[in-house]
Amino acid sequence: MAETRDLFATPFVIDRLQSEAGLAMLREAVEAEMARDAQGVSISNVGGWHSNTQMLEWGGEAARALAYKAMTMADAHTLDTKSPQESRFGWIPEMWANVSRKGHSNQYHTHPGSFWSAVAYLDDGYEGDEDTELGGELQLLDPRMPMNAMTAPDLRRLGANGRHTPREPTIRPQTGMIVMFPSWLQHAVRAFHGEGKRISIAINLTAALKKQD
Question: Which of 7, 80, 82, 188 could, after both became Cys, cross-link 108 (CB 3.0–4.6 A)?
Answer without folding.
Answer: 188
